[in-house]
Amino acid sequence: MPGVRIKGLVKRYGDVGAVDGLDLEVKPGELVALLGPSGCGKTTTLRVVAGFLKPDAGEVWVGERCLSSAATVIPPERRRMAMIFQSYALWPHMTVAQNVAYGLKFAGVPRSERDRRVKAMLQVVQLPGYEGRYPGELSGGQQQRIAVARALVVEPEILLLDEPLSNLDASLREEMRFEIRRLHEAFNITTLYVTHDQAEAMVIADRVAVLDRGRVAQIGSAEELYEAPSSRFVAEFIGKTNLVEGRAEDADTFTRGRLRIRLDGAGLSPGAPTILSIRPHQVELRPVTSDDPARPPLGALRGAVLRASYLGDAVDYQVEIADSDVVLRVAGPAAPRLRAGDAIWLRVLHGRALPP
Amino acid sequence: MALDRTVTATPSRIEGFDRAIPVWLLAAGALLLLILLPLGWLAYMSVSGERGLTLAHYARVFTDPRLGRALWNTVVLAFWSGLLSLAIGAPMAWLTARTDLPGPRLMRSLVMASFVTPPFLGAFAWVMLAGPNAGYLNKVYRSLTGSPDPLVNIFTMPGLIFVVALYTFPYAYIMVVNTLELIASDMEEAAAILGASRVWVAVTITLPMVLPAILSGFILSVLQALALFGSPAILALPAGFHTITTQIWALFQYPPKMEMAAAFSMPLLLATALLLFAQKRILGRRGYAAVGGKGGQRRRIPLGLWRYPALGACLTVMACAVFLPYGMLAKAAFARAWAQPLTGENLTLANWPLVFMSTSTRAAIVNTLELGLLTACVGAALAALLAYVTSRKLIAGHQILAFLVLTPVVIPGVVLAVGLFIAYTRPPFLLYGTLWILFLAYLTKEMPVGYTQSDATFRGIHPELEDAGRILGAGRLTVLRDITAPLARSGIIAAWCFVFIGVIRELSASILLFTPNTKVMSVVIFDLKEEGEFGAIAVLGLFMLAMTFATVLTMQGLLGRDVLGARPSSGGSG
């Protein structure tokens, strides 16, 4: 089974560069999600890989075959790929069986074999016996499953998915995430998955490539992206975070005006301007009580609760650090409850320094 | 992602050779030949003199008092028929769309009947209804009052405006009704809840939202009136005045003054182009998108005491546009003398065999059907191809193609005929005297209608449906056959029907391009007027109407909606 290599891909629309020097490698049998906001070039990249768009520069390789370059583009029908579309793109004038069997014709599967494969695949997507229905008679979720069946039945070398779940309602979307992951583990097809939903990407993908303005900002497992973002963009895009701009005093101390935060083992480069990313759950809050010593506990900062929103399993706090202009969002436990106006001690347990 | 979505399949240089490319280029070439050649010749002829280029023809056009009068008459006719169309169409649209007027669907069908009635047939019927001497209404009036004078004389400018407006008001109606149906009642109710009175809501909310449609409906009606040849030829010529279209036709009569006709065509062409441009601007700025588009819930406004008077007013209009003219045609078709009462001895079937046995009439019917079928088939195929190419952005310059294919909308039939006549009476294309020149005229004229319909069809087919076929292994042409064609079929057949209806009723281009061997039905009807054969006119007219309605009904069955739903970019004029 081949992998996919994208080298220096550039695709412009007029003067607008939708994809601007993108490099990406998908290992054989791996599922990589392309994640990014609107206009980051993820769908364009996918359509170049599919052969619908010609790159302005760069190459797309599958195994030892170069499928796309600025000079030549192998047409989509000769790529041995399959694709699942946002609109499902089921043909309304064909039955479910005809839809699913369509690609088998071109894959050279004999007629007698086709029926058997269609039937088996409908079993896999848990819609057995739906052969004679028309797409218009199916629910959104069922249509999605048929679209999956139609793509998998041809046993493609590469599977492409373009925001396949964005037309489903929330509960069905969650169910289908696990379904797609299950199918990937069963079939192990090299897969590129485009989405703008980070939770979806994190559940489904082996690795997530975060795209920013037509390039890969960072690629890695969900943990790597969350725990060790390499840029401000990735830190903000993956999960919630607080960003504080300042500079490094020494290897362990971050400063902003009169604010000093000690981060043991952060390995800051002394003197350099730095952005500190602090996840909401990496801050510890403690109420200031009367028997507290006047001096703060070690490493703690004085602050006040500005707002507290009870969320059931957690409380979303907005806290202000005293003698600074810094306001942090903090996810605190449901107990002890703090109220707006309470004076607090807060301690940053972990922070990640990012280049500005 | 918006950017990613709008730009779809643009597979330019694909490995190997895309067999489809020559097909696209052919279609583009045909279009250039159909439109640019006649218009190019028209422009050239209007400035060509004995020695090189000259503006003398234009000078004569604008200084000759006769031509000046024709220009002025056209302005008067177009403006007042546009205004009258609006005065009829807009209130009727509001009544049928937003109030509890009885039978709104019947009223819509009647507007549709008026829409597809060839205007020149209406004009003939009104000659029989309101001619000063033998006109049926005048005879009834005289017998009732004993007055020696007629009630109305249709052979006057007001008479002409009235008859023209009867068949152009559907354009205003369509524009307004389609907009009204997009405005959800909650927008109006939002204002009402803030304390606005019903009248104040209408003035401040509803009216501003439909204003673009009202202006646009006015302009479309004006455009129709400008391009019309049949009605002015039937009503203005006996009254002793010309419009631009009849004047161009007169310049074509022996000895033909081709350069003058070409120069005289230019102001008309310019006027239609400007008007259409204005209409697009008006619709474009605050177009339908601003009107919500969601549809939403609509509650009908109770008319109360006004319910039946309003119905009466609508039915009066429909009587003038449909019931009376159709009745008059039916009467004339079965009468020995159309002006006499339909008593036992006046009743006859003789008109029918007379018409259908006449060799020249039969030849014309055959010509019309041949041209209708051929143009509809070629036109629908070409329109489908062009719409496919432009909606899928398959070749560079597809925007230019989409613009060109719509340009015939601004070319009045008479003007197109002048261009075609000049282009195809000289080598290398000697087509004058054959049916082919008529075919070219019809094909060009009907292209925008066919294209608009096909374009809407292809835009309704999500490009991902085709992409899904490609990625599974089907080539472009296979996808076209297996997926696009079956999905587009009923839309394309509807386009076929639109073109067919347009062709069988066409008069304004045919009247300049026919020769004794290449007459079509509309021309025969026009000629029969010279001979005063109203019985034969009525028979042929009813036959034409029957074919039209049969086609319309087929089309409605296919589209699952009536033809008024589609915005007419040009309905073809008589």
User: Biggest β-sheet of chain A: count, sense, barrel?
Assistant: 6 strands, mixed
Spell the H/E element sequence of chain B.
HHHHHHHHHHHHHHHHHHEEHHHHHH
CATH class of the largest domain in chain A: Alpha Beta
Termini separation of chain B comes to: 48 Å
SS strand fraction of chain B: under 5%
Topology:
The complex is a heterodimer of chains A (about 350) and B (about 575).
Chain A: E1 4-13, E2 16-26, E3 31-35, H1 42-50, E4 57-62, E5 65-68, E6 81-84, H2 96-106, H3 111-124, H4 140-152, E7 158-162, H5 170-187, E8 190-195, H6 198-204, E9 207-212, E10 215-220, H7 222-227, H8 232-237, E11 242-250, E12 253-256, E13 259-262, E14 273-278, E15 283-287, E16 301-310, E17 315-321, E18 327-332, E19 343-348, E20 352-354
Parallel strand pairs in A: 3-8, 3-9, 6-7, 7-8
Antiparallel strand pairs in A: 1-2, 1-4, 4-5, 9-10, 11-12, 11-14, 12-13, 14-20, 15-19, 16-17, 16-19, 17-18
Chain B: H1 2-6, H2 21-47, H3 56-63, H4 65-98, H5 104-116, H6 119-130, H7 136-145, H8 157-180, H9 185-193, H10 198-227, H11 230-239, H12 244-252, H13 258-285, H14 307-333, H15 351-357, H16 359-391, H17 398-406, H18 413-423, E1 425-426, E2 429-430, H19 435-459, H20 463-471, H21 476-504, H22 510-513, H23 521-530, H24 534-559
